[in-house]
Write a structure and sequence with these properties.
The structure is a single chain. It is built from ten helices and eight strands. By secondary structure, the chain is α+β, with helices and mostly antiparallel strands. The chain is elongated, with a radius of gyration of 24 Å. The chain starts with 7 loop residues before the first helix and ends in a 7-residue tail after the last helix.
Length: 292
């Protein structure tokens, strides 16, 4: 089990509260969901196909409200969540299933892992009020946006390929000698084009891995960052699209303004043409996580 992230009092309140109000992004989606609360993660039991599912594909920013009808307590949590997997093929389904309401069915519900990063909790105690207000451990240790994007685009073996995409063009342009026209510009376009193509390939594969993971046909490690709800599915595709546009522009300029060989030196060293199909094949034939 992961480290505790929710105070025991909050877990206790959610255990008896019933459905909570859920808000995604800046007006992206809203709805209600029952919960399966644990100290390390709060699962939101969201109907498959509900607006909340589509909203979380577009934004991982989620807010959860729980208020007692008589005003005995008020709970507001902000954090992150991704759409999750169906309860029926979730590795923790035996733990989640007891929290499903009588009107629900595992085959029609998603187990959405919501990670609270900031909590505001007010509860009546005698003649006074008890207050809890502050960041959770997950909120304090959330990586910065730049590091998240770097991990998504150049994580794992992609980092080694990115080094080649820089070193080989630099070596090639050095060998051409000082008479090669506009060497700094050519080198910059080679590096930018190669890295952008590599990033586009990796981001597209990570998005595919996330879809396969949600269907129970891939592992969480096949979609890093997305399964941690640090980046949404739609954002990943948008960054992949922007990266491929940059790559085409840079490499196309090299071919037109310099020579096809200069373009190939930017295109080939990153090995996106090899890694992309290999990653996609791995996802299409890979084995999912073992069920508990």
């Amino acid at each position: 089990m992961a480290a505790p992230n929710l105070p025991p009092d909050v877990v206790r309140v959610l255990s008896f509260h019933g459905a909570v109000d859920v808000f995604v992004g800046e007006g992206v989606a809203r709805g209600r969901a029952h919960t399966a609360p644990f100290e390390d993660v709060l699962y939101l039991l969201v109907p498959i196909g509900a607006p909340l599912e589509g909203g979380m594909l577009a934004s991982v920013a989620v807010e959860v409200h729980a208020r007692h009808a008589d005003g005995d307590y008020a709970l507001r949590m902000t954090g992150r969540a991704q759409p999750g997997r169906g309860v029926g093929h979730h590795p923790e389904r035996a733990t989640i299933q007891p929290w499903i309401p009588e009107s629900g069915h595992p085959g029609r519900l998603l187990a959405v892992p919501f990670i609270p990063e900031h909590i505001e909790f007010v509860r009546n105690e005698g003649d006074g009020k008890a207050r809890y207000h502050g960041e959770t451990p997950a909120g304090r240790h959330r990586p910065r946006r730049g590091l998240t994007l770097m991990r998504a685009a150049f994580g794992g073996i992609t980092g080694a390929a990115a080094v080649l995409a820089v070193v080989i063009p630099w070596t090639w342009i050095t060998i051409q000698g000082p008479d090669y026209p506009s060497r700094p510009s050519a080198l910059a376009l080679q590096i930018v084009g190669g890295l952008a193509l590599l990033a586009a390939t990796r981001l597209a594969v990570v998005a595919l891995g996330f879809r396969q993971w949600r269907a129970g046909r891939a592992r969480a490690s096949d979609a890093p960052v997305l399964t941690d709800a640090l980046l949404s599915f739609r954002e990943t595709l948008q960054y992949a699209g922007a990266s491929i546009v940059i790559a085409i522009a840079a490499l196309g300029t090299l071919s037109a303004a310099w020579e096809p060989q200069a373009m190939l030196v930017g295109l080939l060293p990153g090995c996106a043409w090899l890694l992309g199909p290999a990653w996609a094949l791995h996802l299409l034939v890979g084995k999912p996580e073992a069920r508990s």
